[in-house]
User: Fold these one by one.
Assistant:
Number 1:
Amino acid sequence: MKKISIMVPCYNEQDNVIPMAKALVEMFHRDLPNYDYEILFIDNASTDDTRAHIRAICAQNKKIRAIFNIRNFGQFNSPFYGIIHTTGDCTIPVVADFQDPLELIPQMVKKWEEGYKIVCCVKTHSGENPIMYHLRGMYYHMIRKMSSTEQIEQFTGFGLYDKSFVKILQDLKDPTPFLRGIVGELGYKRCEIEYTQPKRRSGKTHNNFFSLYDAAMLSFTTYTTSGLRIATFLGGLCTLASLTIGIVYLILKLIFWDRFAAGMVPAILLIAFIGSLQLTFTGLLGEYVISMNRRLLNRPLVIEEERLNFDDEEIPDTIETAVLHCEQEGKKEKTGDNGDTKPDEEG
């Protein structure tokens, strides 16, 4: 029996992890009964009750596993680490807030059985803010045009990855992995499924300007050299323009010495323009240096604090049967081995 791994990254998702676990288990029993499964929650140092809920889920169903990080390692490292620590014949990363539709999982598995090694789910519409959706679209389009490798527009990482591709990810040893770019660059036998992204089921997004900026800069500095080339070309054009303006001013001053007053305003504007341009591209160069520095330091992707259910214990079929099993064991403890009463048998 083939085994499908579901990887769910979490950060402050206390209202979503239990419904997500139940929905996934029900989906497997309803739509994929001929497959074994594992569900791996990787928690990025949540500050709410997410971990307590995950512990309860893992206690009820041994097919549900968990990795707890010692701190928040960011929106890229933790999911990537979770993927490379799954054990299934294929792996499907799913966000905890239900913005990745679970009903697409059987479709992805069908494509996988047809021979595709990677199935990418690509957004065509979204329930999020339409302005943000279109801005993301413009960004994806720009990166695709500027990158020397293939990039997948409106692809968030939600998809199916065969274990052969997961092995490639394990061998990368990249301390700052950008999964979307890696799939576009190294993915093979790939197909796409279009979908409409729903709104979050509960809670609020953890993305802000800085996290979105980190994502943009990581992809930009990893998969494009256009930024530095634009800086070089634009710097050359500005130098040429400045030289031309200087020569024209000199000629006009020499010809119309008494009537042509150059003044300080043009010089001040030119200095401010060149200075701002230099600062902008120095900052861009700094982003490339930061990206290089992270890779040279080669820090671990994450550091684990604890693992749950990474053993070979007997695995209950569903959350419901696991709960019943725990209740029955509790009743046995209360009555003793040779007590007069026995736990009620159900179903």
Note: The radius of gyration is 28 Å.
Number 2:
Amino acid sequence: MMSVEQIRKNVISCTKCELCKTRKNAVPGKGNSNADVMFVGEAPGRSEDERGEPFVGAAGKILSKFLGRAGISRDNVYITNVVKCRPPDNRVPKTEEREACREYLAEELAAIKPKIVCVLGNTAFGSVLGGSEITKYRGKTARKDGQLYFITVHPAATIYNSGLVEVLDGDIAKMFSLIRELKSGGNIKADIEYS
């Protein structure tokens, strides 16, 4: 199994798709390699591309705020994206770009072994679980290949729709409540089971 550091190096030097030509920096995942939760977003934005770190722009500040409300530090979680380089003009990543990065996400998952993977937003939901209609499935759990997932809206969505602030806040609190239950030996029955 590959270490988080090796995955990071591989992402930084990656040239598997056209995004390597337009990026300033590739953006590997970052955080605690023993985290109970791994957050997976869509792709880096401008701030992330500048700094080479995930979720450091407006959406990252929002995520940090909600983590703080749940009593969790960013240092205790692992944060990554489906796609590791910024698509031009922050467009939705193309299928071939998602495919090029699929292996990195699988390696991160194997290295971190989180209790829950928190899927942030529709693009991540589609890429990771093949789902759509995030508003219909947010707040639900899914199990795929033995891994538990929690589905919620992307923090950036709260910038454009203030009604989602409460939704995301409640979802994050619910997810950490599930993690506490798992850590105390509880068993979570997933809302959605993937065969």
Note: The CA atoms of residues 44 and 86 lie 5 Å apart.
Number 3:
Amino acid sequence: MKLIFIFVLFLFCFSCKPIASESLFNGYNLDGWHIDVPAIDSIPTAKTPFIVQDQMLISLGTPQGHLITNKSYDNFRLDIEYRFTGAPGNCGVLVFASTPRSLYKMFPKSIEVQMMHENAGDFWCIVEDINTDNMLVRRGPEEEWGITEGKKRRIKNLTDSSENPLGEWNYMTIECVNNAIKVWVNSDLVNYGYNATANSGQIALQAEGAVVAFRKVQLTSITEFSE
């Protein structure tokens, strides 16, 4: 019996594909990322809102725009540690990002996982869509739903009480598997969406008005059992 158990365990382990983990931020520079800030195109004095300071990635909030990975990803878990360093405000993580400046000539086509203070974990549909349970309650009247300007693109999270007090670090995990997205904030499951209209793409961090520090942006590939 013991031999059978060992053999089954061997087959189980052999069928598992390796799980790769990598830090998307190396603590020293923005290698692996590129910046898309529309104001830089037309204002000669505009400076990048994304800097590295004390081995942290800082989003200065303005001018508004995005820091986008050069690579695209699918089937992954993203672990992020962030905090507002001053006044609370808005920021977010975009997954499944693709065509730049698709919404309001600013936001890349994507699904946003909101970091806005007291709203962490909301979904915002940006020319991509996703379903959740209780959509009428959490998104509003169905006839007003949409993925472009003027439509109800926000899907509220399951709890607004998961964030730590201002100034403290928050721990967000975003798990993207196939067309589903799960979000945890400080270990609380705060959102779950499925039937997304995308299942791969770039990852982006926002500059959207508030100063936010990131000390961890860790991506772990999620792999299924081989046939």
Note: Helices lie at 2-15, 38-42, 135-139.
Number 4:
Amino acid sequence: MTQTQNINTSIVKDFKNRVNTICTQRNTWEQTQFKSANDALYAMLGELYALTSQFTNNTKADELKYDWLLSECTKKGITLCKKPTFAQLLVKYVFTDNDTDSRRISSYVRVLNAALQSSEVKSAADVSVFIRKYGGVEEIRASLAKGTKTPLQRAASGREIVLKGKTVATVSTSETAKHVAAAKGSVVLLVGVLNAKGTVDVKHVCYELVPTDNHLSAKSAVNAALSNAYATLNKAMKKVAKKKAAEKEIDDKNKQALSISSDNEQVKAAA
């Protein structure tokens, strides 16, 4: 084996070890921190950024790295496009397991690509700052998807819908009455249980603006509810638009048929 081959083998071996170390970190993160913190996720994406930014595709070592990733992804049964990029292979290899959400992984690929193309990111450490600055993984993913509102945009639209919408019911609780001064005008979520009579037993109140130090902020839950309001109305509007389009198509076909029939009658009369 030549000296060049030895160097390439050493480079690729180090690369494999680093990638598999991140895989182990990912597994630990999902088992222990996934539901409570994104720090570890952003750090891992930062490490993947470092590996990807070092990839030039102009060396034999880079060729061997790509071939190894492609082979490993194939062994895992990972769905790939015809010509996957190095970043796609790297992210999918690290994050894909049998129960992994493919949409979530696609979001990581988009975020990594956005970081690679951003002048604000120059090192692995900058990736966490970049992701947080632009609102998190889902915000960045949605902002890059054509015609897609980001979660915050959906929540903002949902807020307008809720504030302008018809009041379904007015509920008075001793809990909310105590905090009118601090929370008036903000959005609250009433957590209740639907009983057999069709009424709701309110069990808990979540506040967008916390009225006291004893309360926890529920901004994420409120934004999710507002996004739901936007999505529900948007779905209803699309359904109406689809129905109108179908009715117009039928109407146009009927008009065309009548026009053809009329032309035929005129031809017969002329004959």
Note: The two ends are 93 Å apart (CA to CA).
